[in-house]
Amino acid sequence: MLYHLFEYLKNCGCDFPGINLMNFISFRAMMAAVISLCVSLIAGRRIINRLKAAQIGETIRDLGLQGQMEKKGTPTMGGIIIILAVVCGAVMVCDLTNIYTILMLVTTLWCGALGFADDYIKVFKHNKEGLSEKKKLIFQFGLGLIVALTMCLSQTIHTEQILTTIPFLKANEFDYSWLSPFGGQIGVYCTWGIYMAIIILVILACSNGANLTDGMDGLSAGTSAIVGVVLGVLAYLGGNVNDAAYLNIMYLRDSGEVAVFMAAFAGALLGFLWYNSFPAEVFMGDTGSLTIGGIIGVCAVLIRKELLLPLLCGIFVAESASVLIQRHWFKYTRKKYGEGRRVFLMAPLHHHYQKKNIPEPRIVSRFWVVGIILGVATLALLKIR
Length: 385
Prior knowledge:
This protein is an all-alpha fold and 385 residues long. The chain contains 14 helices and 2 strands, in the order αααααββααααααααα. A two-stranded antiparallel sheet has the order 1-2. The longest helix has 30 residues, at 184-213.
């Protein structure tokens, strides 16, 4: 809104000091972060009080984890705070006519509604399972399809070559046409089909990975904020023609707006972390975790950095892998030996360390440190060819 207001005033001939500030992505990114942070801090307290008054508390199953039962009754569905803050920050300073901004806002509201429905069933219907995995996957697949089709049809995003960023190759670029077994026009259709499938897979993986990571106070919010900052930096560099040329990385016209949105995302998470850090006053629930994962996945796809996610989101990967390994190994050993065996003391991975009686704040802070290392490594890979 502020961006469009300043544009309107300039078109009307106004020329007061600072009127051109909104033309700078860096300034608007800082504004977005500050606005989202303030909304998250101010509205967060009121929303937490409302959740307490409505007795929307977390139900806890006794899994024998240290300090687990003390969290019983802590308000959940706090992801509403994150969604509100992100949307307010983005709407205030982003270019709302930009296709990247529109897709990021659609992603936020889409995943937020999905997570809210899941939490609603758990809290008000007293069904701990929430939405079935099948229904979640259908809605996540729908979002992936929307993003993929938009990228195929939008004149702003669509390109003849479907390139993405990957380390160790010339110019750090990977052409998806290399995966197509066909040539000619059929090869073009096949390449776009492969790319759309990868987009959907990335969104599904990120959304569910963030959901699994949300198991300790501040863990998901902190690690996601780190990822959001790195993606924002990558979006800023890739959306600036001079920076992209200097660093010899892929230039994407108008994608700088993603940097503004991700600044709002990081600000919202930092504000939420004020209430979610140990001991947490509120949990984000699936309302927050599914939204966070969806935003990260779609952002990476839009700025063509999806192949960097396994490194950047290494925490999500490790958490998801621990669950898959534990589940399949248990089934395999039960079938072979008649008794299921475990690789980890408990999955996801953060609970494995909790079972070793490591204090929760120490586990979370160490995961943050690992997340920062992975973020720095991801940025460093831009110069490795």
